[in-house]
Specification:
- The longest helix has 5 residues, at 5-9.
- The protein has one domain (2-123).
- The protein is globular, with a radius of gyration of 16 Å.
- Helices cover 6% and strands 43% of the residues.
- It has 2 helices and 11 strands, in the order βαββαββββββββ.
- Strand 5 (66-71) and strand 6 (78-82) form a beta hairpin.
- It is mainly β.
- A 4-stranded antiparallel β-sheet has the order 1-2-3-4. It has a 4-stranded antiparallel β-sheet with strand order 5-6-7-8, with no helix packed on it.
Length: 159
Amino acid sequence: MDIDGGALNQGLVRVCSPDTGDESDHLFGQTVCISDGSISQAANNTGPTQIQPFVIGGTSQGINMPDNIAYQSGRGNWVIDEDAETTFEFPHNNDIWDCLPDGQDQDLLSDGCVRVASLNDLTAEWTGGIFDASGKNYYVSIQHNIGREGTIIDFTGWK
């Protein structure tokens, strides 16, 4: 779960979180956003609390079982780490997806996601991704890899 920095800058409370699901039961998960009105309303428990889908799993985009999320300050994008059952139905990798915020359209869904990284080790998964304050470095761990060594990667060059 991560705080929507864009909403916070406007004095609003909004967090987004993956709902991982269970791919082996064709429950591909989703990412939802929860809003609670203004900071004052949230603090006083008077906000209009709403839950809205942001990214639907199991769609043609190929996002299955979103597991971690990070807000990218400066751009307003959301980066989602996937933790799928990599051998279910056919071998497939766990990926990292960069998703646009919702734009000026009739829904509240992301306006699109693009795969930015993919693991080639079917035993491994991404976990715990987070941006630094500049939004230009994304740190993410790889766990359960075939070498049994935990790894932390710093993806740089985000603009």
